[in-house]
User: What shape does this take?
Amino acid sequence: MRSKNMPDGRKSSGRKKSTFIEEARRRQIVRSAITTIAGAGLAQASLARIADEVGISKSVISYHFDGRDELIEEIVTALLAESNRFIRSRVEQESGCPAKLRAYVEASFAFMAGHRDNFVAMVDIWGSFGTAEAKRAFNATAYDPCRRHIESILRKGQQDGDFRDFTPRTLAATIQGAIDGVMLQWVFDEAAVDLAECAAELTAMFDLATRNPAGPDPVTGDGR
Amino acid sequence: MRSKNMPDGRKSSGRKKSTFIEEARRRQIVRSAITTIAGAGLAQASLARIADEVGISKSVISYHFDGRDELIEEIVTALLAESNRFIRSRVEQESGCPAKLRAYVEASFAFMAGHRDNFVAMVDIWGSFGTAEAKRAFNATAYDPCRRHIESILRKGQQDGDFRDFTPRTLAATIQGAIDGVMLQWVFDEAAVDLAECAAELTAMFDLATRNPAGPDPVTGDGR
DNA sequence: CTAAATGTAGGCCATGCGGTCGAAAAACAT
DNA sequence: ATGTTTTTCGACCGCATGGCCTACATTTAG
Assistant: This one.
């Protein structure tokens, strides 16, 4: 059983008894919950309904999770982790910051295209961070790292002489913003935007916006 | 009294008896509801809580609105109308498509900065469109017009020879996406992004991305 | 084989919700 | 003043939800 009212204040941090079936069930529940949320909205995704989707009893969820809140928290974590893992692997395969930046954008859109439910659910969940504090916390633990990743690419590119002189932090926010903004429209209506075209437009635009007019410094970068 | 169960199927379409106090109350309720939603989240913004914020009884809301759904609908309408009116007026003051485009972006950010609650509430509400159909409807009636506006500017600019050759629809989606994406980060954490800097970065980027390398055709456009 | 643990089911409950109702109050017309 | 209409109030209802509890099933350990 998952730890609930342990003497210490710690919540479900005890991942000790990770029975195979335990973790499997958790993943299964998280998966079905994402599907349910994406299909019916977070508000309609009650424990009963999620349980229905999985084909189990409601209390099974209560057994494996400390409550609805923890389930949603885990969903968020899972969604972000899955996306980030994919993007980072793609970026790392490239050498040279311009290529890495392009890979970041393209990977973001590629992952979207194949995991629509993830993002529909994500947008639904975004609206559930009631307090400003919760919003800030989410931003700090989940959103900011993405910007930092871009920022590091940009900064490195500047050092290499591939990129012109700009404020890495601001441009990183702008780039991530553009990606998420297009994603948002696509979540509202799949047919409203063409992901591939937007991706192409964005990569071209960011290339233009970051390129160093003086050309690169050392070896990397051919100014393609 | 607002029409509720009129013989005909029409809902609250009878805006006939727009008593001064009636419309005043509605605006008041909408305002307070936005504040409540922005402060506590849509889920926590129950009729009781909103009524508390206004300082009236719960049933007053039920009296002036046909239900919670209609209230939220009106909130969405009000939020978008307010924002669009501001942006459009700014755009129309400019002559020349490059200037209009810049005005669109700058006005978007300027309005944000002065109406944070509006956007926090908006993001919360975004997550409440349960079904895919509701999402599509929102996109069609509220979101798409914004893109169309940008699109018309871009298309006109191409005709004038101020802009290069691109797909107006796609670039419009990209521009609106970039604005909303940055807005989203700012909603999560006010301190996470610098709106003014992002606005500057975006205007510069879009200018670069739209400019016609061959220069303008007729009179308008100085290639500043 | 048996006993302890782990996992599951279904019913139960307190809570808070949106919405309704009739009476009271306020605004208005005459 | 008086009657009429518009607006407000507080109590109330039915309902869905998240969480809890007890009993039952299944797996694991000795």
Summary: Residues 18-65 of chain B form a domain with the Arc Repressor Mutant, subunit A fold (CATH 1.10.10). The mean pLDDT of chain B is 89.
